[in-house]
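S1.2 Input.
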Amino acid sequence: MTTPGPDTAVSPVAPVASSGFWHHGVPAEPGSLLALRRDLARWLGSVGIRSERADDIVLASYEALANVVEHAYVRPRAGSLDLAARFDEGDACVEVVVGDRGRWAAGPPDPLRGNGLRLIDSLADDVEIARGDAGTVVRMSWAAHPNRRDALW
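S1.3 Output.
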């Protein structure tokens, strides 16, 4: 997992090509996440990602989305989130990007919590987190095994 320092500029989550999936400006509220999770799973199926791999992608993405809801905005301030995904058939690679425009607000210490970033890191092949004054962007990617191009589907 790569985590640039606090002065790193955060790139906005941009629309992706037609083979991609994109939601912009979704309210960062718990009620928004179920539909995003369902839409992402449906999109992964539509591009032919096998269910075992899709489960990892959806769970890691959902955890990143939940982190936005819980940590990006100090309540009662409302905010939004972006979710983008793309499938590069040539590279057999899926990339998911979750972004916000908030500032990380850590919750109170709790020994049963605080494992979300470790979970994301264990599920994704590569994770990059960029935090800055303009928000946080989490980029996660999954690639096929180097010797098996069919490992994703």
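S1.4 Remarks. Residues 71 and 106 are 6 Å apart (CA to CA).
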